Amino acid sequence: MDKWLFYGPCAAFVITSLINLKIFARAEDLSKLKAELMAYTSEHFVNRETYSDNHKALQDQMLQIHQDVSDVKNILISIVNAHSSRN
Question: What are the structural domain ranges in the chain?
Answer without folding.
Answer: 1-45, 47-87
